[in-house]
Amino acid sequence: MASMSLRKANTRLPPEVNRVLYVRNLPFNISSEEMYDIFGKYGAIRQIRIGTSKETRGTAFVVYEDIYDAKTAVDHLSGFNVANRYLIVLYYQAAKMGKKTDTKKKEEELQRLQEKYGVGSAAPSADK
Taking the model in full, what pTM does it have? Predict the structure, then answer.
């Protein structure tokens, strides 16, 4: 056990590593107990959230108490076969999750506003 704590003290983790995991490609009928059985082998779990709506089915968030347990789970469970489905286990990154908006719609809205207010796409001048 002393060697494990020493390893943790000397290991520098990449910046994307955190305690929250985003899991995709789950079977739609997986239970919370099954999730705890699968992910609990790698450390203490604070919370598991399984997607239930039409858009979030087959996904879950798993929050570990310790960042090193989360890293171990990602290392061991990425590609793990559950009910003939291979899990995709990623570190949760809020910035990437928020970019799911449709950029084409935003560009069309910008174009519409530019035309409405007579503003061109050229950068504003620095006159003062």
Answer: 0.68
